[in-house]
Each structure stands twice: as structure tokens, then as C-alpha cells.
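Note to self: keep these together.
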Amino acid sequence: MIKDFNNLDNFDYFQQKEIQKGLEKKIDISLYAKPEIPFQIMCQLRKGLEYGYDLTPYITYGAGVLHELVKSIQSGVSLIPYVHAGYDSDQLNAIRQTLEKQIAIDPYLDISYRGACINEIAIGLEHHIDITPYAKTCYTWRKMREIRLGIEQRLDISKYSNPLYSYWQMREIRQGLMDGLDISYYQSLMYTAKEMKKRRLQLMDQHHSPIAIETEPENGRDGYYDFQFETKNQQTLQLSDDGSIDFDRIKWFEPVSKDQILAVYHAPSPGKNGKTVTGTTIPAIPGKEQPVLTGNGFELLPDQKTYVACKNGHVRLQKSELTVSDLIRLDNLSPAEEPLSFNGDVYVKGTITGPLVINVNGDLVVEGFVNGAEIHCTGNLVLKSGINASSVENTLTAGKQVICKFFEYVTLSAGKNISFGTSLNSNLSCYGSIISYGEKGGIIGGSCYAEKGFCLSNIGNSAGNSTTLLLGTNDHIRLQSMRLEKEILNIKTNISQLKDAYQDAYKNIVIKKHQRNDLLIHLKDAIDQKNEELETAHQKNEQVNKRRTRACSSRIIVENQIHQNVDVQYMSRKINAIPSENVAILINDNHLVMEKYDFSASPQIPKEIITT
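Structure:
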């Protein structure tokens, strides 16, 4: 290894930076610290060495290929066979992303495919459709896409899969098929895409033109799916007659077994033609096909209609995405010295008794009581029997929403809504809304913050437990905003420095012409990259600002009673709420205002079924 590298005169600014970074990481820079190696290649060689891989044998393939090799090292897939086969960086990018999803792409690869073509093939495989009609070298990636969309929409792709069509012509025919039009009126190759569109719109107008009808046409029934599992009440709150959460009716996981049929598709019917008073046939509009279901964890059988589970787990349907996920089922969890970690959704049929630390990468649903546990999950947290502390404080974090029967001496942070019956002496915080259910439910004691506001049955109790609710922005939002503003300022400074360096290099006549041109290209690439980073930072900052604005317009709505000793805080302002019923506490001109609220007219946070 070169421990001291001071002879940098033959290296440009960016090469020097790569050498410096290598020295800081204590890697062998002698493998790439050579003036003839461009800084882009130096960068990838350095990153490879940081992961323990010497990529210098592939230096002749260029920076793009080396970049994909580094990415493949990071994700744990191998691109070496594809590099040797001669695939370029765009192709390797598509192949790498496909391999990362564990999609078997090899049987369908062809060196003549562009990266975008490989992407279209990968999408088809991921969507479980038959890709053989379009995985052909005679199609560009855009034509592949039109055929793929037609297959996914269950259209007769033979009507437009002729390679002589442009992709625009293919699109016009595909749209006509989707609308049930007689595409023979315009599908001839003699029509340009523009003329096809004109004729397609004419057909659309004819469908709506008034005519004298003797017999009305009967339009066909649309295609539909017959799902073999419960789809309506998945991951939703079920409410009792008194408005409280009915935890017995919450069915969060729908268990399935390997090879179990999940859904069967039924094709649309053609309909029955009508007739005008002059005897002219009025064609019925055939029912529309439904798109194929996307997702993972299932297999679409060769009939292209039957979906079966590939493994044991639980099934979930969101719009047209069907997913079978791993489900870990446990009876009870008891005290353990070491933290318990689970990768996947977890269902605990019994109780959780601490002291115990649980980490779940997914959703966690517990049927029984939770006592004295520290729980962290990346998904949703559902505690059907409630949670309280014993000798160990309950600390909970959830990446999504939390649904719980009651909290007692709990510290909780959630990424979305917190829905519950009663919270006693707990500290609750979330980026969504805090909502209590049931006439006797609400918050008693503790300190709670909700970025989007509160909708509660009651606050406090007749005993006067001290209860604090916080509105507006919290420290997390403020710190995030400050960090992004600092990041934006630093990027702008970097851009200014790079632009100065560009001007200096452009005017420097001492530098040899080819070296100056290379340096200018490098500087221009760096400026473009920094501009992209600046745009991303601005977008993130805009999202944070929207959250700040929303938080500053949040409110507290109380359906039943506010008791004494309830404080509401907004920034440095605070009011001690007056015991009353049916009120809203809101921020008005940076001041807290308490007023009567009519629930029947316009509930701010409706107590409706909340989905994930």
C-alpha cells in the first residue's frame, strides 16, 4: 500500500480526490492511482476495493460497467458472467435489478436487447404473464411495452403485434380494444398513428350519437375475479354499536397454505346486439377485461386465470396487487435476556410478558395482553388486549399505524395514526392522528403529540389527572428542516466552487488541450450531479415544509368531555382547557382558541374505518 502519496502533479482535481479518499479508507491506492486512469473509473475501483474486491481486471469495460459491478457487490448478486458475455452498462443495470428481485431472466436474454427491453421482459415475468409473445428481437422496448400492457389487460394482442406497426399505432389499437371498439375500421398499416387516433375518436363519438332504436343492445358483463379469501375487512378497524373498537372482529392476517387457490378470473361476456328502426345492427359493447393481478408469493397457472399460493403465509389484496407474505405464528412470548428478532409479519396468539425486547421487520399482531415489553416494528402494530407496564416500562415504536385496546404507562412513537380505546398516563407521539373510540375512551394523564391532530372522546378525568396535548411542529420536524436547509446551502456552495473551477480550467491555456477537455467534462458531470442533488434536497425540504404547515393547522376535537387540569400547548403558548363538552381547540393566528364543535356538520378527523 502507498502510505504517503505526495506526487499529485500529474493528476487532475478529481483524480486527487479519489486518491485522498482511498488513503482515508486505508485501501491500496496503487491499484488505481495512475494518471492515465480517468477519475470516474478511479471512483469505481476505489469503491470496489472498499468492499474488498479488486475490479482492475475489468478496467477496460469502462466506468459504467464498473459502476454496475460495484452495485452488484453491494446487493450480493453476480454480474461477472454477463460482463464476459459483452453486455453494456445499461443492460447490466436492468439485469442486476432483475436478479435482485430473484427473477429468472437468463432464458430470455439476448445480447441485442437494450436495457429497456430487458426491463420490459423483467416486468412481465414479475407480473406472472406469458412474455413469449413480445420477448423477441424484432420489437423495440416501446413495442414490447404495448404488447405487455395488452397481455396484462387480457386483450387480443394478435390485432396489433405485427412488428411493422409503430409503437404509436400499437397504442391506438390497444386503446380501441380496451374501449370495445371495432378496430378493423382503422387497424390497417396504411393509416398513420395520427389517422388511427382520428378514426378511433370517431368510433367513440358514434357510441354516443343519438339514433332511433328498436331493440336496445345489451352490453356485456365485465371480467371479474372470484377471490377464495376474505378481501373486504382486511386490515381495517371494526366498530361495535357503541362506537368502540371491536377487536374480536379485526382479522389482520388471512392465513393461506402452499398450493391453495387464491383467485380465479372469469372472462367478460360479449353482450347482445341491438337493432335500429331501419334494421341496422347496433353492436353491443363487450365487457371489459380486468388486468392481471400483480404482486409476489403466488403463481399464475398456464390457464392465465387461476392464482395459487407458492408458500405458506398470509395473503393480502390491495387494489390489483396480490401478495403472499411469510407469517411467523407464536403462542406466547416470555422474558428473555437477549432481544428477539423476527424478519417478517408476526402473529402472537397468546400473551407477551416482559422484561423482553422484540424487533419485528413487518407487522405485529398480538391477541393477548402485553406487559412490560419493549417492542419495535417497521410495519403496523395491533394489540388486541391492550398493554401496560409492570416493573419494566413499555416502549413501543411502529413504522406505520398502531391499534390498541388500551395503553397504560406506555411510551409510543408511530409513523401513522394511533387508534385506541383509553390511554392512561402514557406518552403517545405520531406523524398521523391520535384517535380514541368509544364513549368512555380518551386520554387520561401523560403527554401526547399528533402531527395531524386529535379526535378524542374524552380528555382527563374527574380526579383531575394532569394531561398535556401538544399541537404544531415538534423537534423532529424542526431538526429535519434545519438539516435540509444546511444541506441545500452546502450543495449550493459546492456548485459555486465547481463552476469557478470550470471557468478557471476553461481559461487556463497552460493545460494541454486534451487534458483541459477531459477536466471540463469531469467538472460539467460533477456540476450536473450536484444540481440533481440540489433538486432532490429541495423536494425533501418542500415535503417537510408541507408537514410543518399541516401541523400548524392541526386541531383537537373532543366529542364528549374535557375535564379539569388539561393543558394544550402550541410552541410557547399554552391554555388550560375549561371543562366542557363537544369542543375544538385550534390554532388561530398563532394563538390557541377553544370553541364549540358540531360533529354532525363537519368532523375534522372522521371516526370512520381507517385502512393502512
